[in-house]
From TrEMBL:
It holds the Pfam family Malectin. It comes from the Eukaryota. Residues 95-215 form the Malectin domain. This is LRR receptor-like kinase. Keywords: Kinase, Receptor, Transferase. The lineage of its organism: Eukaryota, Viridiplantae, Streptophyta, Embryophyta, Tracheophyta. Gene3D superfamilies: Galactose-binding lectin, Ribonuclease Inhibitor. The keyword Transferase applies.
Length: 215
């Protein structure tokens, strides 16, 4: 766990393409040189106290949930606050997302599409602020990575068309339901294996481990 501020000496590094400092306890101001640094930087999920940032995604910089809540006063930059608190009045009581797939109706519910073309560590706000996601990390050695997986197998499940694609993330992937009304909610997560085959071929050797946190 890293603490303290980001040293100015980093801006002098000549061979730096990526700097991932997500999920730490870094503090102090985010200097303007960081906002304009021409490398991919991820400062999401930290505890900075000040910055002149006007959004959570600036150029190649991910700032989602990067500042202490008390240091952010503008409603337009609510996404800089820890845990992304609602900038207005809570107004939603349901949310359905087809992660990495198109919009559509299934089992009486309308699922928002999630077809945004991803790239290195980014934050995306969708459907007029009803939900968002933050992806961290990069697939090293693959600058053209798609960040989505496509199914090539036959799925013997109901609604199989909704499992044909899925969003990928090298480090972590977080989805946010924003401005939800207070109350008790039922959370359903739907998974289908579309990358590892169920046979004796080489593609069956992978193993899936889930690490899911719901807050």
């Amino acid at each position: 766990m890293l603490t303290g501020s980001i040293p100015n000496s980093i801006q002098g590094l000549k061979r730096l393409d990526y700097m991932f400092l997500t999920n730490n306890s870094l503090s102090g101001p985010i200097q303007d040189w960081i906002l304009n640094f021409k490398v991919n930087i991820d400062l999401s999920y930290n505890n900075f106290t000040k910055s002149s940032a006007t959004s959570c995604q600036q150029l190649n910089l991910n700032l989602a949930s990067s500042q202490s809540s008390s240091s952010v006063t503008s409603p337009s930059t609510f996404c800089l606050k820890r845990n992304l608190p609602c900038a207005g009045k809570p107004q939603y009581n349901s949310l359905f997302i087809n992660c990495g797939g198109p919009q559509g109706d299934y089992d009486g519910n309308h699922y928002f599409g999630d077809l945004q073309k991803d790239h290195v560590s980014n934050f995306v706000l969708r459907n007029e602020g009803q939900w968002a996601y933050s992806s961290t990390g990069v697939y090293m050695g693959n600058v053209n990575a798609d960040y989505t997986a496509s199914n090539t197998y036959s799925l013997n499940i109901n609604g199989s068309e909704y499992y044909n694609t899925a969003r990928l993330s090298p480090m972590s992937l977080k989805y946010y339901g924003l401005c939800m009304e207070k109350g008790n909610y039922k959370v359903n997560l739907h998974f289908a294996e579309i990358m590892f085959s169920d046979d004796k071929s080489f593609s069956s050797l992978g193993r899936r481990i889930f690490d899911v946190s719901i807050q």
